[in-house]
């Protein structure tokens, strides 16, 4: 299949490589030029998308998707009937619906397909796609989904993939925050971190989030699998979406305060697991003030 892949960050680069390895004809574009063996490199989103059957995006935020789609050298300038545009970024559900309407007006179809599985899932083609769009369009994309992931969950109409992804990331951040606070408490009370994790993994508290993050936490390895700045961006998207539907999420504000402090401490480019250091810092500051 002839595919344009736009955005070659931690996730997108691995996804594009998997499409190439699956035998697709892939043209790539990234804001900062990068190359992938076996793929052609384009100078702009429009150049990459020209003649493509599918345009796949995976970029950092809503503004980046808007630029790729609607800038003077954007995808919309070459969109045509039969083209499918799929977005694996995590962005605003409302903006997603707006982008879809604009591209459909030009004859193309649009699917929001954010992912979960982090860096390891992208590299091993084990991502889970959380999808909004038409069933018949998803069927056409099945070979590409299979090349990059292990499961597709169709949430419903366009925008619902993004809505579900925001709910997922809110849970991930809250679960990890609970773990970070429990770990800080337990270690200060004399419990060895390894023993607490052993207990967690043997009990009903066990979580995929903790299973994934625990080895990194034990080493204080904050190499970004999911950069903190992107999780903070997603929490801000959650706040925006909740405000639009007038839903109050009290835990969200506590979470956002942790991420704001982490940013002030210069940790935004580290993995979001480094928020543990915010919790530890809060405890140390409290003890010093007593």
If you had to describe this structure to a student in words, what would you say it looks like?
With 290 residues, this protein is α/β, with parallel strands linked by helices. It has 2 domains: 2-157, 3-Layer(aba) Sandwich (Rossmann fold); 163-289, Orthogonal Bundle (N-(1-d-carboxylethyl)-l-norvaline Dehydrogenase, domain 2). 53% of the residues lie in helices and 14% in strands. It has helices at 10-21, 45-49, 62-70, 93-104, 118-123, 135-148, 160-188, 193-201, 208-219, 228-244, 250-264, 276-289, and strands at residues 2-6, 25-29, 40-41, 54-57, 84-87, 109-112, 115-116, 127-132, 149-156. A 6-stranded parallel sheet has the order 3-2-1-4-5-6, sandwiched between helices. A 3-stranded mixed sheet has the order 7-8-9. Helix 7 crosses helix 10 (228-244) and helix 7 (160-188) packs across helix 12. The mean pLDDT is 96.
What's this, in brief?
The chain is α/β, with parallel strands linked by helices and 290 residues long. Helix content is 53%, strand content 14%.
Order of helices and strands, N to C? EHEEHEHEHEEHEHEHHHHHH
As a whole number of angstroms, the C-alpha radius of gyration is 20 Å
Give the strand line-up of the largest sheet.
Answer: 3-2-1-4-5-6
How would you state the average pLDDT, rounded? 96
Strand content: 5-15%
CATH-defined superfamily of the largest domain: NAD(P)-binding Rossmann-like Domain
State the CATH class of the largest domain. Answer: Alpha Beta
Write the SSE topology:
Layout: E1 2-6, H1 10-21, E2 25-29, E3 40-41, H2 45-49, E4 54-57, H3 62-70, E5 84-87, H4 93-104, E6 109-112, E7 115-116, H5 118-123, E8 127-132, H6 135-148, E9 149-156, H7 160-188, H8 193-201, H9 208-219, H10 228-244, H11 250-264, H12 276-289
Parallel strand pairs: 1-2, 1-4, 2-3, 4-5, 5-6, 8-9
Antiparallel strand pairs: 7-8
Helix pairs in contact: 7-10, 7-12, 8-9, 10-11
């Amino acid at each position: 299949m002839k595919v344009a892949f736009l955005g070659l960050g931690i996730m997108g680069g691995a996804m594009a490589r998997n499409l190439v390895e699956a035998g697709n004809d892939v043209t790539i574009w990234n804001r900062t030029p990068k190359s992938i063996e076996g793929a052609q490199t384009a100078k702009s989103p429009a150049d990459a998308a020209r003649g493509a059957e599918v345009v796949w995006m995976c970029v950092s935020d809503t503004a980046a998707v808007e630029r790729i789609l609607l800038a003077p050298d954007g995808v919309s300038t070459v969109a045509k009937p039969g083209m499918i545009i799929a977005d694996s970024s995590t962005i605003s559900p409302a903006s997603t619906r707006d982008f879809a309407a604009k591209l459909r007006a030009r004859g193309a179809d649009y699917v929001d397909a954010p992912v979960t599985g982090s860096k390891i899932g992208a590299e091993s083609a084990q991502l889970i796609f959380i999808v909004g769009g038409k069933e018949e369009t998803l069927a056409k994309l099945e070979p590409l989904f299979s090349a990059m992931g292990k499961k597709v969950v169709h949430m419903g109409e366009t925008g619902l993939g993004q809505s579900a992804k925001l709910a997922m990331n809110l849970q991930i951040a809250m679960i990890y925050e609970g773990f970070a606070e429990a770990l800080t408490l337990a270690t200060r009370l004399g419990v060895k971190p390894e023993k607490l994790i052993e207990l967690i993994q043997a009990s009903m508290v066990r979580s995929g989030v903790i299973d994934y993050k625990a080895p990194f936490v034990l080493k204080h390895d904050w190499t970004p699998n999911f950069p903190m700045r992107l999780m903070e961006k997603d929490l801000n998207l959650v706040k925006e979406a909740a405000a639009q539907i007038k839903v109050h999420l009290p835990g969200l504000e506590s979470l956002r305060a942790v991420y704001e402090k982490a940013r002030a401490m210069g940790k935004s480019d580290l993995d979001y697991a480094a928020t543990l250091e915010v919790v530890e810092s809060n405890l140390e500051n409290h003890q010093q003030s007593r």
